[in-house]
Amino acid sequence: MIVAQITDTHIVRPGERLYNRIDTADFLARAVAEINRLEPLPDVTVVTGDLVDTGAPAEYANLRELVAPLRMPVYVIPGNHDDRTALRAAFGGDGYLPEVGFLQFAVEQFPMRLIGLDTTIPGDHRGSLCAERLAWLDRTLAARPQVPTMVLMHHPPFVTGIDFMDRFGLDNAAGFAEVIARHPQVERILAGHLHRAIDRRFAGTVAGTAPSTAHQINLNLNPEGPLRFMFEPAGYQLHLCQDDGGVVTHTAVFGDWPGPYRFRAE
Ligand SMILES: [Fe+2]
Questions:
Q1: Which of 47, 55, 66, 233 has the fewest CB atoms within 10 Å around its CB?
Q2: What CATH architecture does domain 2-253 belong to?
Q3: Domain range annotation of the chain
Q4: C-alpha of residue 239 to centroid of ligand 1, in Å
Q5: Cα-Cα-Cα-Cα dihedral of 154, 120, 124, 49, to 10°?
Q6: pLDDT at 14
Q7: What's the CA gap between 128 and 176, in Å, rounded?
């Protein structure tokens, strides 16, 4: 089983550019086309938050059109730029989101179980996992302890060293770690938010963030560093779920690059 992960698509209204500069719809259309051309085709695509930029229904309508060509099931979770109500209205018809409350869900029909978490706080860019959300996660993980599982969340549960983004991090990583440590079937935690690929050991598993389909956040580990974005190659991750339940993660970039070439002339 292969899980494709894209994230931080930041879709705006049709014809607009994010920050008057970034054509996020064009970037996402390219991502969708390239994922559709992968062989083997991923079994599922997950989008780990910041689906749109302001949470407006018109942005979600634009997003739905852009992801409609994907040839596999798509699951989305919210990020700090999303709006729960508008997201639910746009994607509720797909059947996996609860009708009320936090946008948390479990996907059961694949060999790898997928659990989506909602780390958002309305009106705030920071992330949170309150007691109610953690209790739901604990119960949900306890229900199928033998099934290898990925947990999807927008805010990574660790400090990255990119200080400006860490100020908008997750508020209860310690409580989350306690829950995860009780459930060793969690093979990987998939996050977004950082607009680049970062990994860390976490509570007995591996947690990581994926690149944005559009703009990347400048790699600057200076604590005084300002928040800047870059047009580094945009990318995605392919999580290859192996027969022993383990997960291998490949980080790749979009775009037309020279190659592939043979190593020797023939
Ligand atoms: Fe983002």
A1: 233
A2: 4-Layer Sandwich (3.60)
A3: 2-253
A4: 20
A5: 40
A6: 97
A7: 10
